[in-house]
Amino acid sequence: MITEHHLHSPIQPPRRTLMGPGPSDVSPSVLSAMASPTVGHLDPYFLQIMDEVQDMLRTLFHTTNELTLAVSGTGSAGMEACVVNLLEPGDKIVVCTNGVFGGRMADVASRIGAEVVQIERPFGEVFSVEEVGEVVKKEQPKVVGIVHAETSTGAVQSLKEISEVVHEADALLLVDCVTSLGGMPVKIDEWNIDAAYSGTQKCLSCPPGLAPVTFSSRATAAMDARKTKVSSWYLDMSMVRAYWGGSRAYHHTAPINMNFALHQALRLVLDEGMENRFSRHYANHCALKAGLQAMGIQFAVADDHQLPMLNAVKIPDGIDDATIRSQLLNWFGIEIGGGLGPMKGKTWRIGLMGESSQSSHVLLFLAALDQCLLHAGYQLTPGAGVAAANDFYRTTITD
């Protein structure tokens, strides 16, 4: 039962340092944008905001795709929007599954009656061009789905050569960019990606609630050639794009203030400069890595496949996953993530995304983890992690 006291209590969430797999820390200016006066979803001011959001997303996606917008919903809504618009019942999709989110893409496709063929790699590994090409040549699917940055494992997948073999088979390439967009290059046009989706709460450092998507002309042509209605009314791009495009036909009431927040978050990304932002993410990843290795903690992913914004590391033998994460949260206000699937209890996922990718966060986390591990009886040289990270910053980063 809600007591009168609880009913009238103001919402006062604790202040956290968000270093998990998302959400990331949010800039005060983005939070302020969310608190701006609400206008109507067809107000001329809001329509201008929509246009500017589209333009900034095109820049971030490195694309000229006309159909580029922010789906009203979290990153999973972006995934579902791409899948249900590109596939009809009976269509075949090859899904490359090497983590939780590849599996989720396959699940969505199966629910709408698509024929799903999964190729799998162990969590933390990536796909070769040859194995994807072999399956695509054999199966001749309409769509091939793959994850660029697998949030569950911390592994990044190269895409350009895979895109070539996908298109040789005349298939469409669908890519999950939820964790990569805004933290590392996502080159939609150069890599010839037909559809991609992301989320606001990772490297864009905006609260969860919108899902940037982009569709190539080949993808829109495939949607226009459908013989059946899109299974989801809410996510039907034939109607949603009319609202975001020239006719401004009413479809649904957009989350106006969330779009204000995304607009400001995208401005911050572009004001920083994308190359500067990518370099910042990579530098803080390297500093964290140096610090963890000095503490005897190893990454769960091979060096050439490690994501700079999502660091999956092996939990040392004899150390309890949940206890350390609880201590980090309760003693220091730091949130990190645990492993998923077969990595549950075996890895920690340490996020350095957007606003959370800061040297101060790296050093705070290493100092806090040092104390938690020492408290658990783990053998390490106190302060070694912080010292190694500081050495990296001192010898590598210049003004």
Automatic annotation (TrEMBL):
SUPFAM superfamilies listed in its UniProt record: PLP-dependent transferases (SSF53383)
Classification via InterPro entries: Aminotrans_V_dom (IPR000192), Aminotrans_V_PyrdxlP_BS (IPR020578), PyrdxlP-dep_Trfase (IPR015424), PyrdxlP-dep_Trfase_major (IPR015421), PyrdxlP-dep_Trfase_small (IPR015422), SP_NH2Trfase/AEP_transaminase (IPR024169)
Keywords attached to this entry: Aminotransferase, Pyridoxal phosphate, Transferase
Chain residues that bind substrate: R349
Modified residues (N6-(pyridoxal phosphate)lysine): K202
EC code: 2.-.-.-
Residue ranges constituting the Aminotransferase class V domain according to the UniProt record: 38-338
Any one GO MF annotation of this record: L-serine-pyruvate transaminase activity
Cofactor: pyridoxal 5'-phosphate
Region (Disordered): 1-31
Taxonomic superkingdom: Bacteria
Example of a GO biological process term: glycine biosynthetic process, by transamination of glyoxylate
Pfam families: Aminotran_5
EC primary class: transferase
PANTHER family: ALANINE--GLYOXYLATE AMINOTRANSFERASE, AMINOTRANSFERASE CLASS V
Similarity-based family: Belongs to the class-V pyridoxal-phosphate-dependent aminotransferase family.
Protein name: Purine catabolism protein PucG
Species assigned in the record: Gimesia fumaroli
Taxonomic lineage: Bacteria, Pseudomonadati, Planctomycetota, Planctomycetia, Planctomycetales
